[in-house]
Amino acid sequence: MNEISTAFSIPALLYEEGSFGVFLLVTIILGGGAAALAGRAIAATWRPWWQVVAYGFILGTAVRFIHFSLYGGTFLSLHYYLVDSVVCIGCGFLGFRAARASQMITQYRWLNERDGPMRWRRKMP
């Protein structure tokens, strides 16, 4: 039982480089920032939410390439590709939801009111 618990490592699950700073810079800041902007753009053009997923997988490939080309990571690694893609999809949904909430409040201000940074609700009569 003790062998299993010592073999599992959260850092090894998230990133393959020896530094958390590389993961933070490339995956979270660059990939997540690009995904949040993509999510905002998808919402701004009134496209459906599932397109965030498609663009998240594309950005996951770009993030994996940056890890490979600049930091010597493995390019064709399904595990780390999925980690990068999940981070991109999550940040993309945050950007999408924030932009959609802003749209629903500004476009339909007679009908909706803000209910938090990423939510809206119907106005009470």
How many beta-strand segments? Answer: 2
Oligomeric composition of the shown chains: single chain
Distance N terminus to C terminus? 61 Å
The number of distinct helices, counting runs of at least 4 residues, comes to 5
Q: What is the topology, as strand order, of the major beta sheet?
A: 1-2
Largest sheet: 2 strands, antiparallel
Coarse structural class: mainly alpha
- Strand percentage: under 5%
Q: Ranges with pLDDT <50 over ≥5 residues?
A: none
Shape descriptor: elongated
Q: Which range best describes the helical content: under 10%, 10-25%, 25-40%, 40-55%, 55-70% or over 70%? A: over 70%
Return the domain count.
Answer: 1
Commentary on this structure:
The chain is mostly helical. It has one domain (37-125). 70% of the residues lie in helices and 5% in strands. It contains 5 helices and 2 strands. The chain has helices at 2-7, 10-14, 20-44, 50-71, 78-107, and strands spanning 112-114, 120-122. It has a two-stranded antiparallel sheet with strand order 1-2. A hairpin with a 5-residue loop joins strand 1 (112-114) and strand 2 (120-122). Helix 3 runs antiparallel to helix 4 and helix 4 (50-71) packs across helix 5 (78-107). The longest helix is centred in the last third of the chain and has 30 residues, at 78-107.
